[in-house]
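Meet our chain:
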Amino acid sequence: MKGIGGSTAAEQLAGLGPWASPASAITHNERLTRIEKARKLTRDAGADALIVGAGPSLRYFAGVSWGGTERLVALLIPVSGDPVMIAPFFELGSLEAELAIEVEIRLWQEDESPTALVSDACRSWGAHTLAIDPALPFLFVDHIAKSAPGLALTSGAPAIDGCRMHKSPAEIALMQQAKSMTLEAHRRAALTLREGMRASEVIRFIGDAHRAMGGPGSTFCMVQFGRGSAFPHGLPGDPELREGDVVLIDTGTTVQGYHSDITRSYVFGKPDDEQRRIWDLEKAAQAAAFDAAQPGVPCESVDAAARRVLEAAGFGPDYALPGLPHRTGHGIGLSIHEPAYLVRGDTTPLATGMCFSNEPMIVIPDRFGIRLEDHFYMTDTGPRWFTEPQTAIDAPFG
């Protein structure tokens, strides 16, 4: 079991410290460039302004890391004119502490209508059509429609996704750090495994490892042993590790909001012939997906390439089990899952700066599952791995 077991959590944590070469923050100029691109894409979509709600997209454009609540916090970007931030009056100090761009701030009190401020801004710009952040809750969309009955509403996805799907070198560097940190947490977690260990112990260690390297901890962590590995998002409970179990660990962290999401699968003990055969097939499917990810081809072709490998081996077809029950991959960035997607029906052409997971999991129902998940980013000449894929079932980290 090369690289599996033989150490302790204390020993492995003692070897960790803050990341030696942290990636640089997103600059003010880059955020301004994003806003100008959003203006163009909004105009191209036939709208006069774009509203961006609290959440990852607000962080993308304005540097504000707040999640959404029942109180409207939003950035309005007109195709011509200065952006406007709508926020509760009592949040002004907190907002100013995080804002990374210059905007006009319009505030509302608790007994006032924030969507009236949206309507007023659009009227002052002469806007006839407002593009809506696809993640903005219906609660706010409905109130905007009632506050501005003459204002046409349309999807803001072409502008928001059109910006966020294509990562800059600075974004890729932040994601590279996050993924490298998570891979190191994986490697050290494997060394701590012992028979009888609970999944919760592994989860706790991985969170501590992410924090020791300067992350906020694990954004999520799924640890499954044996039969639990046959369920793509696991089973409830706190299983104990036994000799011969498949170990499936899926976890990630963030660096300045940018996500990692890496899965490793191996066996605690000596793999049997079937475990090895399925692991090797998973490895081949992951490699086929990577090779298919060429500039200009549709996202769905990457998923098709992985499925061809599995179906040739007698699995599937399509989503049937035993086989691959979900898409081959998802976009990733400030959201852990974001457009575009490596799945049938997504015809988005692959282009420079797009970042994806590659995880064509194989499920053997009620027995075990193997998922190898690494991420790649697109360049002008083809895909590049953020992290090198696992090389063998019995040597998960080389």
